[in-house]
Structure formats: C-alpha cells, structure tokens
Write a structure and sequence with these properties.
6 helices; 5 strands; alpha/beta; 36% helix
C-alpha cells in the first residue's frame, strides 16, 4: 500500500536523519519513545518490531540493550537514504556498532490478527561462514 501523497510530500521536506532532533519533531521523537516503552519488555529486551527509520530510534533501542530488532519491511532504513553520504546508517548503528541482530521481512500479521502479543521465537542459525545476509525460516510458538 502506497502512503498518501500528502504524507510523502511532508516527509520529503525534511532530512529524516536530523528531523527528530529539533523543533516540533522533537515531541514526536519523545512521544514515540514513551509509547514504545509502555509495550517493550524490560532490558535486556530480545525482539522488538519497529519500522524503518534514519538511525535515531536504532541508537535509542540499542541503548536499551535490545538483542535483535525485526520488522516486516525490506529494510529498517528509510530508502532512499535520508543522507546519501551515510547509507545503511541503521544497519551500521545496530549491527556493526552495537551487535544488535537485524531481522527483516518478518511477517507478524497472522500473530497480530490472532491477538498474540508474546511468543517463543525459534530460529536455527544457518551454517554459512563469511556472509552478511541469509534467508531464514523462523517459527513462532504460542
């Protein structure tokens, strides 16, 4: 589903990487963190499902001690990149700088439709050496 044109136009006016750091957008950043903290497990959290961003939330989540972040999108980043000089900043922040595992294309819609808010996440690690990306088949057990 494509976002409404007025939403796209609004976000195209700003450099997403720094938008949440000043002005009225600072309220958005703080309020979003507050809402997320109501639902997040206490640190060290294991799995969080948060959508794309430019790095601000990834730094905050890594600081909370999360071990893995998953999303139902193809990338945690805002693409096209907010700053072409800093591509894949969320991946760099989470994985390279903080050791937080990234799980993308995680379809949690069936779980949400069933009202599932907590489950055992089972993932067998593939035996590939020297790779940075692999296809996985996780299982959710209620």
């Amino acid at each position: 589903m494509e976002p409404a044109r007025d939403v796209i136009d609004y976000y195209d006016k700003f450099q997403e990487e720094s938008r949440l750091a000043a002005g009225a957008s600072r309220l958005e950043f703080e309020r979003t963190k507050e809402i997320l903290q109501r639902r997040l497990p206490k640190p060290p959290a294991r799995i969080v499902d948060v959508g794309g961003a430019a790095g601000v939330y990834s730094t905050w989540l890594a600081g909370l001690g999360v071990v893995a972040i998953g999303a139902d999108t193809i990338a945690l980043e805002h693409i096209p990149f907010a700053n072409e000089n800093r591509p894949w900043i969320v991946h760099q922040t989470l994985l390279a700088k903080n050791g937080v595992h990234i799980l993308e294309n995680i379809n949690t819609a069936p779980l949400a439709a069933d009202g599932v808010g907590e489950f055992l996440f089972v993932l067998g690690a593939p035996r590939f050496v020297g790779t940075v990306q692999v296809v996985i088949n996780p299982v959710a057990i209620r």
